[in-house]
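User: I'm new to structure prediction. If I give you an amino acid sequence, what do you actually give back? Let's try with this one:
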Amino acid sequence: MINLITNELIKQLSRPRMWISLGVIVFINTIASLFVYMLFDGIQFSFWEYMRISSNLLIVLQVFCLIIAGDIVSSEFSSGTIKLLLIRPVNRVRVLLSKYLTVIVIATLLTTVHFVFSSILGILWFYDSFFDFSVNVFIVAGAYVLRFLELVVICSFAFTLSVLTRSSSFAIGSTIFLTFSAGTFLLVMNERGMEWGKYLLFANTDLQQYFFGTPPFEGMTFLFSIGVIVVYLIGFGGLAGWFFGRRDVDV
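Assistant: Good question. You get back a string of structure tokens that encode the predicted 3D arrangement of the chain. For your 251 residues, that looks like this:
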């Protein structure tokens, strides 16, 4: 499994989009930190408050990660390299799992780079408050963890669509559309009393809504959303594994 993941990582790192992603992280963080510094210049504002705000920039990473997740399987079919991959004496499910874990590793890597670079910029602009723990450090850590979990769920959805449709454009486009338009649809559903909307995946992916906002439907709780997400992830894994294991690879 380690060798499979390593090979997948090498393939992904050889593509320009990985380096573009890192470049965008540096650029977005630099601009955002400068904007926050100018906005709060002369106002009491701490390093830890800046770090909590910077966690929201992970939504940019979602786009890059879901592009990788939506392409990592379907691109093998479109290029015909899936045949070469499956002639190895490795179970198909292990091949699929290695690709999914590669997506998670890349998501973790990009999130880590974002956190580290944000910290460097935060120290640069707000170094006086670096040791000021008036803002709970656990709040900052929690914000990053919740955003990362959301990222993983979104990538899992794109990955599953990629396996089912073998179309990168459909998997990526559909996921981006649902990610950024779900809020509007959920608002309309709530206004029309369509309470079953709380069981939809995208009503539960933003776990920060329980700490820094309001859930889209009454009666939703943090544990409820965790349960819904787990059910969907199990369903995604089972469906993708079954479909990939049985699908004809003659393309």
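You can read the tokens as a compact description of the fold. Here is one thing that stands out. Residues 13 and 19 are 8 Å apart (CA to CA).
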